Each structure stands twice: as structure tokens, then as C-alpha cells.
């Protein structure tokens, strides 16, 4: 999965250009050019042996596992399972009760924050991931009061899982390990080559989206007008007919 993520990151400039072309051709109804750009995009994925589908499938595998453990452990604590009452250690001997000193919630959220800061996917860094990191930083802080009342038994799964994730991240950043697993080095995009959207403020992005919507509406209006004129030409049996309808040509 890390290899796929690193390859997707490395071809991001090319994929962004092709996606922009696809959007442009779709806007003006140039379906043949859209198909050509789509084929180039698929060929690019095949050439670099990566797929965006794999990135989308990862959460669908990880999240159900976490939720299953969470629900199972919480129900065991609520039952309660007798062995959990004396299965703890140190200050949390009863795993069915919450941590009275709130140490485990702080440690668990701290480890989660460390995982976010270290970057979970082979050191990949881009503007979109930075925005996600900012969101999850705030989310991690909000988790502390939420998890404060969780039974300590839940943290017996959460803590080892977080420690394992951190160890995995550190291991996959070692050059010998990356070479052995076929994980390519990630290409970090310099600050001056980042996409224009990443450097714009919120209000500027809103203005740009508004202008883009106006352009789309204008293109649709021109397309409808051209189709109407073309139909009128057909009705009048005018000789001034093109081999390609004018509404399919860029104005």
C-alpha cells in the first residue's frame, strides 16, 4: 500500500494536468478528446504500477476492524465480563471502569497525534495531506474529553495498535526496508511549484469557483444556442451544414 501511495504522489503533477484536460473537454462536450485524456491517464497508472482505487479501499478495510474491536470491548466491559474486573494492572486494575487519572486517554491521543505528525503513508507530503493533518490534529484534541469516560479495557487495544502503527511508520522509512519492499522515494513538491489552489485564501477560492460556474453556464448557453441554430438549418434544408454539429465544437 505504501508503494502505491508513493507512486501516486510522484506522478501527481501529470495526473493533475490530465484531470484538468478531462474537465475542460467535458465542459465543452468534446467527448472524443475526453476519451483520449482518460486513456492517457489510465496508461500513466499502468506505466507506474499504481491505482487510486487502492487508496480508496484502505479505509474500508481498516475502519470496520477498529469499529468491531471497539464495539466488542465496550460490550464486554458493560456486561461485564468477570475476568475484566481484575484483568488490569497498576492503577487500572478494573478494565470495566474508566481511568480515574485520565492518563490512558492522554497517552492514546498523544500517540495518535504522533502518528499523524510522522505521516502514515511512506512520508508522502502534499497540500491535500497537510489540510487533512490540520483537521486530525484538532480532532485528536477533541478526543481527549470524549475518551475520558471509556473503560480502560478499550485502551488495551488502542495503545498497542498505536505503538504498532508508529513502529511500522519508522520501519518503512528506512532505506534498506523501502528498497526491499519496492517502495520508491517520494518526490517532495517544492513550495513554489505547489498548485495555485493551495496558496489561495478561502474567499479567493470562492470567487474562482463562482467564475468557473459562470463559465460553465455560458458554455452551456452557447451549446444550446448552437444546437438550436443547427436544428433550424436542418429544418430549412440549408446547404451550409458541417460534418460535425457546431455545438460539439469549441467556440
Describe what this molecule looks like in 3D.
Residues 191-199 have low confidence and may be disordered. The chain has helices at residues 2-10, 12-27, 31-47, 52-78, 82-85, 103-118, 127-147, 152-172, 175-181, 196-199, 202-236. Helix 2 runs antiparallel to helix 3 (31-47) and helix 6 (103-118) runs parallel beside helix 8 (152-172). Helix content is 71%, strand content 0%. It is mainly alpha-helical and 251 residues long.
Question: Gist?
Answer:
This protein has 11 helices and no strands. With 251 residues, it is an all-alpha fold. The protein starts with a helix and ends in a 15-residue tail after the last helix.
Structural class by helix and strand composition: mainly alpha
As a percent range, the share of strand residues is under 5%
Poorly predicted runs of 5 or more residues: 191-199
Average residue pLDDT: 77
> Helicity, in percent?
over 70%
Order of helices and strands: HHHHHHHHHHH
**Shape category:** elongated
How many strand units?
0
Work out the helix count. 11
Distance between the termini: 44 Å
Largest sheet descriptor: none
The radius of gyration over CA amounts to: 27 Å
Give short descriptive properties of this protein.
251 residues, mainly alpha
How would the blueprint of this fold be written?
Elements: H1 2-10, H2 12-27, H3 31-47, H4 52-78, H5 82-85, H6 103-118, H7 127-147, H8 152-172, H9 175-181, H10 196-199, H11 202-236
